[in-house]
Design a protein that fits this description.
Radius of gyration: 35 Å
Number of helices: 8
Order of helices and strands: HHEEHHEEHHHH
InterPro entries: TRM13/UPF0224_CHHC_Znf_dom, UPF0224_FAM112_RNA_Proc, Znf_C2H2_sf
Number of strands: 4
Shape: elongated
Structural class: mainly alpha
Organism: Hippocampus comes (Tiger tail seahorse)
Pfam families: zf-U11-48K
Largest sheet: 2 strands, antiparallel
Domain CHHC U11-48K-type: 38-65, 72-99
Keywords: Metal-binding, Zinc, Zinc-finger
Length: 173
């Protein structure tokens, strides 16, 4: 039997490591993340729907069963959990999608947090008042002003496109 290994010759791949970790996960918890797992519709018990399509199916079944939709309440942690009103409190305490936010979680430093750099002041070399005084001359059709500014002469009419082309006779505004 041949063993197939993924990754480079320097070490195992990350895929091999992550697959080993997922074997330790309980089957019930792993089933919550499987998009192809079949789940039962709370409105019609004969409906078996894939987990990835359940939210769309619930919207359609809710329209077909309005009386039952009024009796069922939605879980605050997962919109696909529809339960009778009297079971909602118990489900809220034991919901597998429940995320606890405690004091220890808020202050704990996480592995993937990006460190925030302290603000620094850059040397201020810009003078906006001076730049306003040295503003470029306005654009005038048919005149080149770049050469005039560099040479210090008056602007002259200049046509760089040739005699075949002409400028517009009217302006667009």
């Amino acid at each position: 039997m041949t063993t197939i290994r993924f990754g480079s010759s320097t070490g195992p791949s990350l895929l091999a490591r992550t697959s080993k970790r997922t074997l330790d996960v309980e089957p019930v918890e792993k089933a919550n993340f499987d998009p192809d797992q079949l789940q039962q519709c709370p409105f019609d018990k004969s409906h078996q729907i894939r987990a990835c399509r359940l939210s769309y199916h619930l919207l359609k079944c809710k329209k077909n069963h309005p009386k039952l939709a009024k009796e069922l309440k939605t879980c605050p942690f997962n919109a696909c959990h529809l339960l009778p009103r009297h079971e909602l409190a118990r489900h809220t305490e034991t919901c597998p999608n429940r995320v606890s936010v405690g004091v220890k979680d808020v202050g704990a430093e996480r592995k993937w947090d990006v460190p925030v750099r302290s603000q620094f002041t850059a040397a201020v070399t810009e003078d906006w008042e001076k730049e306003l005084d040295e503003a470029a001359p306005p654009f005038i059709w048919g005149q080149t002003t770049v050469a005039c500014v560099l040479q210090g002469t008056e602007a002259q009419a200049f046509n760089a496109v040739g005699a075949k082309f002409r400028g517009p006779t009217s302006l667009p505004w």
